[in-house]
Design goal:
This protein has 65 residues and is an alpha+beta fold. The protein has helices at 16-31, 52-58, and strands at residues 3-6, 35-38.
């Protein structure tokens, strides 16, 4: 099983290329039954300058405050 852990995901806010790359990685992992774990200081719905398609995917999994 593939697993990708990313800390401080809120740092991609405002970085369009990084967001597109993360989106592609996310989709590839999902297609191959991989797992992705993210951490952030900000809840997904409050991430500024982050594409809606990413924020919605961040909320698909378990969110803990």
């Amino acid at each position: 099983m593939q697993l990708l852990l990313i800390d401080d995901i809120d740092c991609i806010s405002g970085h369009a290329i990084a967001q597109e790359v993360l989106y592609q990685v996310y989709n590839t992992l999902r297609e191959n039954q991989g797992r992705l774990a993210l951490s952030s200081r900000t809840p997904p719905h409050r991430l500024l300058e982050t594409e809606e398609y990413l924020k919605s995917r961040f909320q698909w999994g378990m969110t803990v405050n």
